[in-house]
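stuck on this:

***
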Amino acid sequence: KESKSPRDFRRKHVTPLENIDNNQCNSEMQNKGIALTQHGCKPINTFIHAPESQVDQACVAGKPIAIDNLEYKRSSQKFRITNCRLSQSHTEDCKYVAENSDWRYIVVSCDQNNRPVHLAKTLRNEFIGKQGDISPSGDTDQDTHNAASALNARWFLRKGAFCVPCFAAAVLLFSAVFSWWL
C-alpha cells in the first residue's frame, strides 16, 4: 500500500536504529502500527537505516526512473536496509523475522516538495531488473541473464539517440568473447 504522506513514509520505512534483530522487527512493526493491515498481517516491510534528511536526498538528487509508466527516483547512494518478513509460523499474530541487512539503492515516488511518499523497490545494482532486486511486496526479480542479455539496452541509447561508441564497445566485447569461444 502506498504511503499517503512523507510522514507516513518515514513512519513505515525510516529508522534511526543501526541494526534490527527479530525482537526489534516485531517492536518496530507493532509500535509504528505497520504490522496489521486491512487484509491481515503485512507480509514484509523494508526499513532504511539512515537519517530522514539523507533519505529525502533520493527525491532531490536521485535519478529519474520509470517503472510501468510511472516515474520514480533512484537514490544516488546505497542505504543499509533491513526487511522484516512475516514469520511462516506466526502468520496469525503478526510476528516478524529480520533478514540480514544489505546495502541497496532505494526507488521512491516523491511528492511536489521532493519528499519520499512511497518505497517502490530496493536495488542491489543501479539498474532495474537485476537478480536480487526486492520490492516492498517481497517479490524478488528472478530474471535470468545470459551473456547476450547482460548487455543492457540502455547502453545503446542516450536520451533516445543511438550511442555509436557504446555500440562499438559492445561489438568489440562480443567479438572478443566469440573468438575466444571458437
